């Protein structure tokens, strides 16, 4: 049964009625020729008649609210058309404008003012079905758009729509949560329509006390819940993942989900690149442009690629170079943020190296990965330099949304004469080049988190371990069909997301079992096929 939250006003205060979905209307109350399949077509036509992305977003939000079955059915049938609207990149615009386009409540808001009382707020969430997955953001780093405060709510909603569509999580067992800890973005503090607290962000200490209480109360209210942390600013992303990962089932999408999706695409790209150059797989050298939570999360995960190729851990670490806003990251440069220290180079001690082309000439990377939020940073010269040292350069501009991408697919194709192995965070259209069609990969954690969450909740895991994340990544890399490989794709087609999520969930559960963090004992010993049957049977589908 779907829950409908119906808002109404009393004395200037908005209240919410929690209602189950109404029963079927009686004869005469709906048009005689209304039937489900033509109505879905009608909705699709209405969507397509909208001209701007944000209008489409608003239309689909209302459709999801009004008629979740039609929404999810259409979403599954038109995945590559829907994801750029309900998710990246349009969800970025929806966040920027959230306080202006707001229509009705969706999700749970927990504010720093609730500290000491979080139990009560959480228990206001209607428990029609038991909550299993929550995406929690504090709005402090939404995509590459900065601190959006409470306007970050649509990112939690968008991720959960993909959980529901992509992994068959039941809609009523998901909770989007935005933590309102204030915002440091002046334009929101001054915006009369801003929906959040009009104050600067809470101090570190206050936030930690708040987070401890929040996590504890969530685990009491929802004992079977997995929490996905989303778009916390880099320091807090690392801090709270480390703080809770051994106590509760939590997963950080930007660190671990991104790490897993990029490892998967890199794995497939490295095979093609090595085949073209004749160099062994373990000879790859990776240059990261951007050293935040996403960059470092990916580097940690990529180390497992090298380790799988047989390199010792220390050798694997040395295959990675980082560039941040000050240039090449190396020890002799001076004080470095904690999360950059592990990968800082100790084999360079000259003056700061800040020009990306110079850095590429110095490092000679086989792969250039952008997680910097710097639009257009991969200039024609950068791309050409990569092409001059690699038969098939791996270039992944992974920053979101589209307008912050380090380069476009078109530029990457043109400046490498079509040889690029490409994946971007946000979607780009395919390109015709010298008589053939080239396809961009979308290296976005949307391929990973639905399957990880599905596996985590079916396996009833105590925690989400590195081995589970790695299993998800390799499961994704392995999921390419022969047809997709023949087209040179690095990631499977998004239309197959349900199938992919099912296989990722299986790999995740098996890894959890190997590590002894699974609590669903009934799944042990079922074998691959038996596990897949259970997973399939548990997945929700729209009617
Ligand atoms: N594709 C995906 O699935 C995915 C997943 C997570 C994050 N992302 C994207 O990655 C980006 C970064 O996210 P984050 O959490 O790491 O953010 P962040 O702000 O913590 O990191 C940005 C990094 O870029 C560096 N940087 C900034 N300006 C630079 C410049 N001029 N030259 C070189 N480096 C510069 C910063 O020093 C920092 O290290 C965002 O756009 C986000 O949307 C993509
Ligand atoms: O939200 C996305 O599209 C990917 C990622 O989680 C991001 O923060 O950019
Ligand atoms: Mg994110």
From TrEMBL:
Q: Where does a divalent metal cation bind?
A: 230-231, 254
PANTHER family under this entry?
Answer: MALIC ENZYME-RELATED, NADP-DEPENDENT MALIC ENZYME
Q: Which organism is it from?
A: Agaricus bisporus var. burnettii (strain JB137-S8 / ATCC MYA-4627 / FGSC 10392) (White button mushroom)
Q: What is the lineage of its organism?
A: Eukaryota, Fungi, Dikarya, Basidiomycota, Agaricomycotina
Q: What protein name does the entry list? A: Malic enzyme
| Gene Ontology MF annotations | malate dehydrogenase (decarboxylating) (NAD+) activity; metal ion binding; NAD binding
The family line of this record is: Belongs to the malic enzymes family.
Domain of life per record: Eukaryota
Domain (Malic enzyme N-terminal) ranges: 64-245
User: Which Pfam family is an annotated match for this chain, by its short name?
Assistant: malic
Among Gene3D superfamilies, the record links this protein to:
Malic enzyme, N-terminal domain, NAD(P)-binding Rossmann-like Domain
Q: Which cofactor does it need?
A: Mg(2+); Mn(2+)
UniProt entry tagged with the keyword Metal-binding = yes
> Which is a Gene Ontology cellular component entry for this protein?
mitochondrion
Q: Which GO terms describe its biological process?
A: malate metabolic process
**Positions that bind (S)-malate:** 141, 400, 444
Q: Which residues form the Malic enzyme NAD-binding domain?
A: 255-513
Cite the entry's keywords alphabetically: Metal-binding, Oxidoreductase
Active site at 87, 159
* Annotated SMART domains: malic, Malic_M
